[in-house]
Design goal:
This protein is of the alpha+beta class. Helices cover 25% and strands 33% of the residues. The chain is built from five helices and twelve strands. The strands form two sheets. The protein has a six-stranded mixed β-sheet with strand order 3-4-2-1-12-11, with helices on one face. Helix 2 links the parallel strand 1 and strand 2. Helix 2 crosses helix 3. The chain is globular.
Length: 265
């Protein structure tokens, strides 16, 4: 009951924020979601309820593109299977291994990482490992990009989960050098758990090249729940291509992050 109430409220908020297109030929708004599932630590690798809940939320919210972090590969398979019949595509990128994740198969084992789910066709998967020069025992980090064909538009969707500590600036710098030039000439939707506050200088170049779903950089919606709550999850749309049309967030009750939603036109 609680999950249905939260989703009903979020859907209503996004519907008001997005509004009705002024012209029938105008492409529908892109409803984007990013969510750190905390699938290994908070969910202990559990598959059935985790996959079922996330798949239900994606459909109920009418999300065009959903970006997931801290996700076990076995949980990803459950989400993909539940959504495939409804026209969704999904891609996964292994960043590390999760101690509680299922040992799924010889190729992926206890794979733990990030994923993109979209209601449309995906092509041109790109996967890069992010540099981690400081500390050889830190959890691996990756960036995943796919070209997504949505009704009325095609965009490049990218997600990542950068690391706290000395590698953070290095990883954000690598992302900036790769992604900002791409965003200058095509629609790019970039989101994920960046583990950094909006006022960080490491994000200046991203705010210059993109519009964040929460247009007020100084007063972003908190997305990380342990006190003090703070914003570390983002949804960026490339300037001139994806203009923010609304933002919302909700605590799902089973992660240390809230689900973060943004609409773009």
């Amino acid at each position: 009951m609680r999950i249905r109430l939260v989703l009903a409220l979020l859907t209503a908020v996004l519907s008001v924020l997005v509004g009705t297109p002024a012209q029938a030929t105008r492409p529908p708004a892109v409803k984007a979601v990013t969510f750190n599932v905390c699938g290994n630590v908070c969910r202990y690798g559990e598959v059935s309820s985790t996959a079922g809940n996330i798949a239900y939320k994606i459909r109920a919210l009418g999300a065009s593109v959903t970006m997931l972090q801290e996700l076990c590969y076995s949980q990803f398979l459950g989400i993909r299977e539940r959504l495939a019949r409804y026209g969704y595509s999904a891609e996964f990128a292994r960043a590390s291994s999760g101690g509680r994740c299922d040992d799924d198969d010889r190729k992926h084992g206890k794979a733990f990482g990030i994923a993109i789910v979209a209601r449309g066709k995906m092509t041109g998967k790109v996967l890069y490992k992010l540099p981690s020069p400081y500390g050889t025992h830190q959890e691996g980090r990756a960036v995943l990009g796919v070209t997504v064909r949505l009704p009325g538009r095609t965009l490049f969707a990218v997600t990542t989960h950068t690391a706290l500590g000395p590698n953070l600036s290095v990883q954000l710098g690598a992302l900036r050098r790769w992604l900002v030039p791409i965003a200058s000439n095509r629609p790019v939707l970039f989101g994920g758990d960046l583990n950094v506050a909006p006022d960080s200088g490491d994000l200046d170049a991203f705010y210059a090249a993109f519009d964040e779903a929460n247009a007020d950089r100084a007063n972003g919606l908190p997305t990380f729940l342990p006190r003090p709550t703070r914003k570390i999850d983002y949804l960026f749309g490339s300037k001139g291509f994806l203009a923010p049309a609304g933002v919302a967030s909700a605590n799902t009750g089973y992660s240390d992050h809230s689900m973060y939603l943004g609409a773009f036109r």
